[in-house]
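Friendly challenge for the regulars: who can give me the structure tokens for this chain first? No prize, just bragging rights.
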Amino acid sequence: MKRSKGPRRATRYKFKSSRKLKITDILQEFNIGEKVAIVINPSYHNGMPFRRFHGKVGEVIGKRGRTYLVKFKDGEKEKVQIIAPAHLKPMS
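First reply, four minutes later:
Bragging rights claimed.
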């Protein structure tokens, strides 16, 4: 059988979570310029970033519909991802 190469492969431990999705996670709002941590919630599939970016800290630079544009460094490069608010945590 051919090996799966989907976006969630090799994430058995990274996406293991005992926390349930709360409506407040989806409805939380961020201001432009605010620092956020990318913490993937595996129970909400919409707007999920790539698994490599789990645990990164970035800055909100804009909003697209219900999702946010988050800029962060991945090694030497600056990257921008479109991420749903359920996968973001405010850094206070």
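DSSP finds one helix and five strands in the chain. The mean pLDDT is 93. Your move, everyone else.
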